[in-house]
Amino acid sequence: MSPFFQDATCDPFTPRNEPCLSGNYVEYAINVANVDDIKAGLLFAQEESIRI
User: Fold this and answer.
1) Longest Cα pair distance anywhere in the chain, in angstroms?
2) Where are the alpha helices (DSSP H) in the chain?
3) What is the distance between the alpha carbons of residues 14 and 20, in angstroms, rounded to a whole number?
4) Residue pLDDT, tens place only, 27-48
5) Separation of CA 46 from chain center
């Protein structure tokens, strides 16, 4: 499959010594201590149209 359609993510045929990157996807992390943190993170993702 073309790398464009894979979103430039890891190719299963890439040599093991090459890094595996998340491609065109942006990485997000939330420091969660309680349920309210989860709710706030999901609300933020919804308001900013961030794919979960």
Assistant:
1) 42
2) 35-47
3) 9
4) 778 899 999 999 999 999 999 9
5) 15
